[in-house]
Request: fold
Amino acid sequence: MVTRKGPGHIGIGLLFLLYGCGDLEFGYYAHLAWGQARVLWSSRPVGDVLDAPSTSPELRIVLVRVDDIHRFALENLGFGEEPEDNYTRYYDTGGQPISWNVSASLVDAFEPYRWKFPLVGSLPYKGFFSKERASEEYERLRERGLDAVLRPVSAYSTLGYFSDPILSTMARYQEGQLADLILHELTHSIIYVEHHTGYNESVASFVGRAGALEYLTHRYGEFSQQFTQAEQRRRESDRFREFVRAVTDSLDRLYQFELPRQVVLRKRRAIFQRAQARFRQRLTEDFPGGHYNGFLNWKVNNAQLLAYRRYNRSLGDFEAVYRVKGRRLRDAIPVFVFCSEQDEPFSCIADSGDAD
Reply:
């Protein structure tokens, strides 16, 4: 399988240090290098953790489960060229997120703020191992009048440059969610398109979700409780994605009028409040699992909406390709890789899904 290497996820800016970065934000890159070095030095072989008497039963389950998911990806989903030493070590984050991510956007347009990095160009997010540093960047962006969002990161991929460890924070995930997370990150190690962050994240989102269902089917069967629960959660995810798409479409139309900033701020707040009212009416019927109740506490924020869209763009087109390939990721992933090598990867995916 042909692969491309690059910054597939949050925190991957640390890789730029490997190739030299001159005097460009040296303190930032040094911070990333030190943070990654700390992860490498402090991680332990999974076998040693399993052999330790002090290891809790809950952690043992997670370690064995991640290994099972990883082997399933290598043997059944077409990840044969993915580095086999991933998830062979364990890192305890001390109850904290592994890192933090900052992103921003104009307030009157869905136009992301982009950071420029050596070799790989610009990215619409910036990762930090230090929450204090991330908070400083977040406040700096807000002072410039931008919408900004600061989020904890549950995992990131180093794309084969290092062995990605199992993180202690993964213990809180249910089995289907854990499979989704691991497969999402593994996808970044085989697919990367420079300047197409939306494609990188959306294809990883699709592979994670579809692969998790294949894994649960393999392990428990299509009619198992584990599969049924994961499938129900995916249906809710699809409905929420369509709901948010409708909200962003309404805001997009508002932004096209190029109204004065204060008028835009007032009108977009009204649009978002009406959307939250509609969502509240649909909670019981469309979102019974309660996974998206947090939307009722969202503030209208273009950076947050762009971040969500970045991970959920054109998933229906990926689904169409998956369906054409008999709902087998092993056969669909080569198409996703092929499209990543084209000038317009999303157009390629749409055309490939129409091939049936």
Notes: Strands lie at 44-45, 89-91, 99-105, 115-117, 121-123, 126-128, 147-153, 166-167. The chain is about 55% helix and 10% strand.
